Each structure stands twice: as structure tokens, then as C-alpha cells.
UniProtKB/TrEMBL annotation:
EC number: 6.2.1.1
Residues at which CoA binds: R183, R184, G185, R186, T301, S515
PTM summary: Acetylated. Deacetylation by the SIR2-homolog deacetylase activates the enzyme.
Binding-site positions, ATP: G377, E378, P379, D401, T402, W403, W404, Q405, T406, D492, R507, R518
SUPFAM superfamilies: Acetyl-CoA synthetase-like
Organism: Actinomadura rubrisoli
Location of the Acetyl-coenzyme A synthetase N-terminal domain: 22-73
Domain AMP-dependent synthetase/ligase, residue spans: 80-468
Gene Ontology process terms (BP): acetyl-CoA biosynthetic process from acetate
Identification of the protein by name: Acetyl-coenzyme A synthetase
Domain AMP-binding enzyme C-terminal residues, every copy: 523-602
Modified residues (N6-acetyllysine): K602
Underlying gene: acs
GO molecular function: acetate-CoA ligase activity; AMP binding; ATP binding; metal ion binding
Length: 640
């Protein structure tokens, strides 16, 4: 799709925007003073003495400052008279609901903090959280923050093995879990996996939330029910104030080796940037907006844009437990209509799934409350961007494409909705106070029109403070590649267009080299999905004896497209050749019913490469649905 349109922000949004173009000028005049000003959005029990201490690659922000993260997310709003404002409209998958005001949230967090203290949790202790998308996940995270005990949330879809590895790495003593949650119309158990993971580790107590009511194994000497110990606690809790660099959480993310990295975030700088970016990028008006981030709290997006950023900004938000197709494929749009959601934040993979399901579904609901849409997690192809704006945003809403990582803690590159003319497919520019560039292999910035590696050239408040227990790996993974320049290496390829806007091209390990030409998997995928018959596509570079790598594409056709046979493949190959150039023409196109995705929705190209190179499959345990690979393999004979 050749999409050259630019979308100017709606006049009403410009007129009332939280952040205007002045912010860029202010931040570039004095970046540190700019972040100090943003830090003043928070309540500090004692102000900091030094804004930034930077001994590359180790940063300390707002040193000398004391704050309590939970007080900033909850208590201060109640103290300011907003106790009756709804913090969370929670929607369970079966249709049960809970409405949690800020006053109620404060009580729940205080009770949970008292319970954790009774169970022996002290500041600095690590607490594992393995919960479905229920309000107790938020209460538990904030209770930990209140006590200065870093939490480590493990996504409920992860296996017992994955949880055990993380428990051991973090050396946690307490695990908070549930009997289960509802997914795809049924209770889905968690407790048995939690038990398997905890056995033989340092976990001393397991706090169990009752959600599904299913019978679960219960170790009387180790396990306690949330409703038994939390509900009887007093709703008052005197907060302690912690250093700005007090660890807030460890979140595990996969790297290039098998062992996941425990990304460490601390308090003052992280909360400053999470709150500022949420205010700036989503233009949140706490008195009128209804915000919905459709991520899971088990991912960094849930940490920064369900829990810390929105609550620090006194948002009213929607939290949804289940899957988008339960009990029907219009569930998201029904929720938007019901709560009059005005700001929606989701992932391209979800948007493309909705495209696959057809335009009629969203058209059947009143989505007129939406005024701003966001995207995160992977590059959004222009086709999906336009569909999102037109079919969900009614052709009115800006779409902010937000680039960031678990490691960056908060959004780094994104349009500002009241300032930027949006370009479909581009995350555009670094936010005020953030310094990003695209450099070549030697660390030299590329000119406009050039491509290379995305780097961050100055420290930022929400940056990771390290990899838990492994400072060497931290320095090596992120800071060794451009050590001379002192740049943070993000691991993403990017290009700068003629306006200097940034286009993220996917992980650099996903960049293919075909006959010496560099081609991004994302670019080819984008070309494929711009064809009217294609719903979704994943592209890998498979070893090829002549060209180095050959392009292999896995595509899901849209409903109604001619299926099977050689005709669609030939047409799609020609289409890609037309869109990008003959060099990008896939060697093979495989029409498949599904693509293998991780539970966070990222396509597992490694597995597709295994298929494309006729290897036996590698580890499939992090797949959302491991049977997908069987479906794909079954299509193989019809391949080339
Ligand atoms: C927030 C999150 C980080 C990786 C990152 C990049 C990809 C995220 C993106 C994007 C293009 C965007 N990514 N947002 N690529 N455009 N707007 O997703 O964190 O799970 O750690 O993933 O995701 O490749 O390096 P995380």
C-alpha cells in the first residue's frame, strides 16, 4: 500500500492538548530541567538533590528524593477529593463486573500491604505475581510498591517451568496466584502450575485469590487464601517513603539466549516517565476520559500503561479479563460502547485479527466515544493503521504508534496527538526529553533517507537500571555494541525518511540479507498485507545456497479470498515485487490457517525459520497455542 497521506490532529484536540510543540523546545534547551519539571508531577516526601548521576552505563535519577509509588498512584487522589472517581471498570470474561473507585482502591491496596507485611514481606523482598487479569493483580502490585518490595509479575499464560526459572532467578519468598481465570469461555487453572513452579524453590508462602471457584490443591502449611488474610486487615496503612532508586519491579523478557533477562526498574524516574508519557501521548483528561489499555499486566505495557502511568494520572480505566472473541468477536467493541471508552491502546497483531474478522463487526457498535487510538508492540503496517483509524476511530482519531521496550520502561518514540501530523506506519519522533538516532554499524548517524540501527543517545528517567543479578550481561547486551559513542543499542533496525521521521523495521535479527541486499521482514510483510486477499503475513529469511537468504512468507488469506493452489502465491509474489522491487519477491509463499505467536502476540519467526529450512522444530513452549505448528506443518506438502 502506497500511503502518502498525512493526518493532522483534529482541531478540538489541538486546542485542548495536554502537551504542545513547546515541549520539544523546552526539553532540548535543557533536558534535565525538563525531566525535573515532569518529576514535580509526582508527590515527593523529600525533594531530590541531584536530578541525574550518570556513570555509563549506570544511571541514577532524582537521588536524595523520597517517595512512595503507591501513594502517588492512589492516596494522593483520594486526599485531593477524588475518592469517588472510578479508577477501574473491571469486566470479567463471563460478564461479571466490578467498579473500583479510588477510595476503594486505596482500601484494597492498604489491606493487601498489611497482609503482605503479616506474611513477612519487607522492603527489598521480591514478590512473584502470577495472576489473571483481575483487580487483585493491580492491588498486589501496588501493595508491593507501597512496601518497597519489588514485584515480578509473570504472565498467567506462562508455563510452570517458566515461572520456576523466574522465581529462582529473583529468589522470591512469596508467590501471589489464583485458582485460575476465565479464558475462551472456561475456567483456566493457575494453581497447579504455581504449585509445580514453587516446589523446591525459596517460596515460603503462597497467597491465593479465589476467582473461578474451581477445586484446587491447597498446602495448609504454605498456602493462604487472599479472602482469609487480606479481607480481615485494617484499611489503613502508614506508608514508608523510599529512595527514588528503590527497586520497583523486575520483569523478565526474552533475549537472544535461552535464559530470560530480569529487567530491573526503580521508582522515581520510572514513575516520572510513565506518568508524563501517559499524559502526553494519550492526552488523558482525568475528569472526562475513559481509557482502555487492552494489554495484560504480565507485560511491560500493562505495568506502565494499566498500572503506574494511568493511576499516577488519576485515570478512569477499563480492565478486561478475557479474550477478544469471547463470547463473540464483537466483545471489544461492546466494551467500548458500554463504558464510552475514549482512548484505546492495543497491538497491531490484535488490529490485524480484527481486520481478518471483517469490517461489519465494529460497524455494529457505537464507537463514537473514541477520540484517540494507540498501537504498541511491533511495527504497524500502513494498511492496519488506516483500518484502525477508519473502522475503529471513525476516520476522526489520531493513531499514535508508540515505540518502546521492557528495557526503556516507558514510551520513547511516538507522535504527540495534539501536535504531530501522523504518518501511517511511522512512530515518527522521539518524545520531548528523549534522544534517539539511527546509526550505521560504525555508530555514525545516518542521513535522512538512510537506514541502520536504532540507538538512544542520552540516559532517560525510566531506563532499566540493570539485569537482575547480572551487571555484566547488562553492559554487554545494551552498551557494548556502540561503546565508543556511549549509545544504548535497542536491537531494532530503523530508517529515517526525508523528513527525519523514524520508521521501525523490527528486530535487527529479523533483517534478511538477500543477495547482499538488506530487506526487512516487516517491509515484505507490510507489502503482503497491503494485498486485498491477505489478512496477515509473517516473513522469514531462510538460508539459501545462492542468495544467502531466501524470503519465505507465511500468509493467512482473508475470508472470501481464493484459497489453495498456485494462483494466489504467484499473484502475491508479483505483488511484493511491485511494491518493493523484484529483489524482495518471496522465494516461497505458504498459505496457512494461523501463525505461531507468543502470548504477548509477537510472531515467533524462529519457528517459521525452522519450517522454512526443513528443520525439526525448536522450543515451542512459549507459544500461545502450540498446536498452531501442527496446522502449519500439515500445509507443507502444498508448499513451494
Ligand atoms: C512495549 C513492548 C520491545 C520490542 C522492540 C521492538 C518492538 C514495540 C513497537 C515496536 C515497532 C513499535 N516494538 N513497539 N516495533 N514499532 N511501535 O512491546 O515491549 O515486549 O519488550 O518489546 O517490540 O522490536 O524492541 P517489549
Amino acid at each position: 500500500m502506497h500511503e502518502n497521506r498525512r493526518f493532522a490532529p483534529p482541531a478540538a484536540l489541538v486546542a485542548a492538548a495536554n502537551v504542545t510543540a513547546d515541549a520539544y523546545a523546552a526539553a532540548s534547551a535543557d533536558r534535565i530541567a525538563f525531566w525535573e519539571e515532569q518529576a514535580r508531577r509526582l508527590d515527593w516526601a523529600r525533594p531530590w538533590t541531584t536530578a541525574l548521576e550518570w556513570e555509563p552505563p549506570f544511571a541514577r535519577w532524582f537521588t536524595g528524593g523520597l517517595l512512595n509509588v503507591a501513594v502517588n498512584a492512589v492516596d494522593r487522589h483520594v486526599d485531593a477529593g477524588h475518592g469517588d472517581q472510578v479508577a477501574i471498570h473491571w469486566e470479567g470474561e463471563p460478564g461479571d463486573t466490578r467498579t473500583i473507585t479510588y477510595a476503594r482502591l486505596k482500601d484494597e491496596v492498604c489491606k493487601a500491604a498489611n497482609a503482605l507485611a503479616e506474611l513477612g514481606v519487607r522492603a527489598g523482598d521480591r514478590v512473584m505475581i502470577y495472576l489473571p487479569m483481575i483487580p487483585e493483580a493491580v492491588f498486589a502490585m501496588l501493595a508491593c510498591a507501597r512496601l518497597g518490595a519489588p514485584h515480578s509479575v509473570v504472565f498467567g499464560g506462562f508455563s510452570a517451568e517458566a515461572l520456576r526459572n523466574r522465581i529462582e532467578d529473583a529468589q522470591a519468598r512469596l508467590l501471589i496466584t489464583a485458582d485460575g481465570g476465565f479464558r475462551r469461555g472456561r475456567p483456566s487453572g493457575l494453581k497447579a502450575a504455581a504449585d509445580e513452579a514453587a516446589a523446591g524453590t525459596g517460596i515460603e508462602r503462597v497467597l491465593v485469590v479465589r476467582r473461578t471457584g474451581e477445586a484446587v490443591p491447597f498446602a495448609e502449611d504454605r498456602d493462604v487464601w487472599w479472602h482469609d488474610v487480606v479481607d480481615r486487615q485494617p484499611a489503613a496503612h502508614v506508608p514508608e517513603y523510599f529512595d527514588a532508586e528503590q527497586p520497583l519491579f523486575i520483569l523478565y523478557t526474552s533475549g537472544t539466549t535461552a535464559k530470560p533477562k530480569g529487567i530491573l526498574h526503580t521508582s522515581g524516574g520510572y514513575l516520572t516517565q510513565a506518568a508524563y508519557t501517559h499524559h502526553a501521548v494519550f492526552d488523558l483528561k482525568p475528569d472526562t476520559d475513559v481509557y482502555w489499555c487492552a494489554a495484560d499486566v504480565g507485560w511491560v505495557t500493562g505495568h506502565s500503561y494499566i498500572v503506574y502511568g494511568p493511576l499516577a494520572n488519576r485515570a478512569t480505566q477499563v480492565m478486561y479479563e478475557g479474550t477478544p472473541d469471547t463470547p463473540h468477536r464483537g466483545r471489544f467493541w461492546e466494551i467500548v460502547q458500554k463504558y464510552r471508552v475514549s482512548i484505546l491502546y492495543t497491538a497491531p497483531t490484535t488490529i490485524r485479527t480484527f481486520m481478518k474478522w471483517g469490517d461489519d463487526l465494529p460497524a455494529g457498535f457505537d464507537l463514537s466515544s473514541l477520540r484517540l487510538l494507540g498501537s504498541v508492540g511491533e511495527p504497524i503496517n500502513p494498511e492496519a493503521w488506516i483500518w484502525y483509524r477508519d473502522h475503529i476511530g471513525g476516520g476522526r482519531t489520531p493513531v499514535v504508534d508508540t515505540w518502546w521496550q521492557t528495557e526503556t520502561g516507558a514510551i520513547m518514540i511516538s507522535p504527540l496527538p495534539g501536535v504531530t501530523d501522523c504518518k501511517p506506519g511511522s512512530a515518527q519522533v522521539a518524545l520531548p526529553g528523549i534522544a534517539a538516532d539511527v546509526v550505521d554499524g560504525g555508530g555514525v548517524p545516518v542521513p535522512d533517507g538512510g537506514g541502520g540501527y536504532l540507538v538512544l543517545t542520552e540516559p532517560w528517567p525510566a531506563m532499566l537500571r540493570g539485569i537482575w543479578g547480572d551487571p555484566g550481561r547488562y553492559a554487554d547486551t545494551y552498551w557494548s555494541r556502540f561503546a565508543e559513542q556511549g549509545y544504548y543499542f535497542a536491537g531494532d533496525g530503523a530508517k529515517k525518511d526525508q523528513d527525519g521521521d523514524l520508521w521501525l523495521l523490527g528486530r535487527v535479527d529479523d533483517v534478511m540479507n538477500v543477495s547482499g541486499h538488506r530487506i526487512s521482514t516487516t517491509e515484505v510483510e507490510s507489502a503482503l498485507v497491503s494485498h486485498p486477499h491477505v489478512a496477515e503475513a509473517a516473513v522469514v529469511g531462510a538460508t539459501d545456497p545462492t542468495t544467502g537468504q531466501g524470503i519465505v512468507a507465511f500468509v493467512i488469506l482473508r475470508g472470501g479470498a481464493p484459497d489453495g493452489g498456485a494462483a494466489p502465491a504467484a499473484e502475491l509474489r508479483d505483488h511484493v515485487a511491485r511494491e518493493i522491487g523484484p529483489i524482495a519477491k518471496p522465494r516461497q509463499i505458504l498459505v496457512v490457517p494461523e501463525l505461531p505467536k507468543t502470548r504477548s502476540g509477537k510472531i515467533m519467526r524462529r519457528l517459521l525459520r525452522d519450517v522454512a529450512e526443513n528443520r525439526s522444530l525448536g522450543d515451542v513452549t512459549t507459544l500461545q497455542d502450540s498446536s498452531v505448528m501442527d496446522l502449519i506443518s500439515a500445509r507443507l506438502p502444498a508448499a513451494s
